[in-house]
Amino acid sequence: MFRRSGSARQSNPQFRREDRREFRYQLSVGFAVLLSWLFWLVPGPIRGWIADRCGDFFLLVSSTYARNVRENVETVQHFSGDSRSTDALVRSIFRTSARNFADLITIPRHSRSSFVQSVQLVDGSWGTLDRVLEAGNGGLLVTGHLGCFDYIGQALVARGYKLTVVTGRTTSRFIFDGVTWLRGSRGLTMVEPTPSGVRSVMRAARRNEFAVFLADRDFFQNGYDVTFMGRDTTLPPGPVRIARETGAPIVPVFSRRARRGHEFKIGDPFHVDRGTDVKTDIAAGINRVARELERGIADSLDQWVMFQRVWPEEQHVPVRVFPVGSPLESELLERVATALPEIEPRQPRRTRDQSRMERSEPSGS
Predict the structure, then answer these.
(1) Is 216 exposed, middle or buried (0-12, 13-18, 19+ CB in 10 A)?
(2) C-alpha angle 86-74-287 in degrees, rounded to nearest 5
(3) What is the C-alpha to C-alpha distance for residues 54 and 256, in angstroms, rounded to an integer?
(4) What is the value of pTM for the model shown?
(5) What are the Cα distances from residue 226, in Å, to 193, 275, 288, 311, 337?
(6) Residues 183-193: what's their mean pLDDT?
(7) What is the rounded CA–CA span in Å between residue 22 and residue 20?
(8) Are 202 and 337 in contact (CB under 8 A)?
(9) Residue 221: which of 133, 123, 316 has the closest Cα?
């Protein structure tokens, strides 16, 4: 009897790992839907006032994020000659982030017309995006964490543009799944910066669609060296590599929250050269992206919702995404997405391209 009972207990069905993941995802989405309705029932002005108070509280209790934001702001101020109060800029950034979250939560409740009507183009032309698509190679929209960037993506989709947005996970999977569902609930395609995500971006360009990159911080600390706002750091090479590979132009775009609605800027498209030296082409492209980001961030510094340090206090050693020799480290990824620097003793910035060139050179001279 006892053995039979134990055997039966062992044979009881258990949640498989895939089932647990699916249940966790459905729970996350359900929670996001519930919050979306609750936030939507609160009148807009009251929702904004509550968001400001939440932003003030977040600033008060999150000393690490507050220090990071202050460090970023002071760097930009020193570079651009901005004499505004740093304290006021930091407070504005925390409030902007809280309002962005409130807008993100209510994205499923808005109509397409409300997205279109609430975004005012203040610089550039919608025709720029249309001309990019007329060339047939798709386009890469590169921006920073400025204004309510999530909302602007919804407005572009409402205008009929197809977008694939690359977003990295910086929080728990439960929260990330809910946020990703909210972002994609009105037609955005969301992908992570993984091999499959890179392939999705490549396919989007070949379908003559837009892909979107937030390129104002090297979250994986495996990017290319660049002077940004007058200080050395690294920026992610993904959009530049894909632009070089596909021929899709890079279009700098920026947004900011206005007193009523949102403002949007569309910059001049540019192509990444495809010469004989990959390294030179990538470096030139990243430097061009850095110059565009400098202008966009300096113009809306009070709404640059970047809570991690863009300029690290000490040099970081790049981290490999895949083990050496892994099948995932394919030629496609090497050319397009994650050709990360190889680390050798006393030469932390040596790249894989340099190592190959050295191996190909005859020894001795």
Answers:
(1) buried
(2) 140
(3) 20
(4) 0.79
(5) 21, 20, 10, 11, 18
(6) 88
(7) 5
(8) no
(9) 316
**3-class state of residue 320 by DSSP:** coil
What is the reported pLDDT for 252? Answer: 97
The structure tokens 């050319």 sit at 335
Position of tokens 């504005």? 92
Q: Which residues contact 257 (CB under 8 A, 6 or more apart)?
A: 96, 99, 147, 148, 263, 303
Helix (H, G, I), strand (E, B), or coil: what is residue 90? Answer: helix
Q: Judge contact between 71 and 63, C-beta under 8 A.
A: no
Rounded Cα–Cα distance for residues 97 and 282 (Å):
32
CA neighbor of 33 nearest in space, from 141, 142, 178: 178
Which strands make up the sheet holding 189-191, listed edge to edge?
A: 119-123, 262-266, 250-257, 139-143, 210-214, 163-166, 189-191
Tokens of 208: 């003559």
Q: Tokens for 96, please give them.
A: 């902007």
For strands 262-266 and 139-143, give the pairing: unpaired
Cα–Cα dist 30/33, whole Å? 5
Q: Which tokens hold the place of 69?
A: 């934001």
Least trusted range by pLDDT, from 9-18, 33-42, 230-239, 286-295: 9-18
Whole-Å CA distances, 305 to 19, 29, 84, 234: 36, 25, 17, 19
**Tokens in use for 225?**
């060296």
The predicted pLDDT at position 346 comes to 38
DSSP 300-312: TGGGB---S-SS-
* Residues linked to residue 231 through DSSP beta bridges, in sequence order: 228
Rounded to whole angstroms, the Cα distance separating 361 from 348 reads 21
Residue 61 CB neighbour total at 10 angstroms: 9
Tell me whether strands 119-123 and 262-266 are parallel, antiparallel or unpaired: parallel
Locus of tokens 């995006």: 129
Distance CA 137, CA 131 (A): 11
Place of tokens 């590979």: 245
Torsion, CA 283, CA 322, CA 22, CA 36, rounded to 10: -20
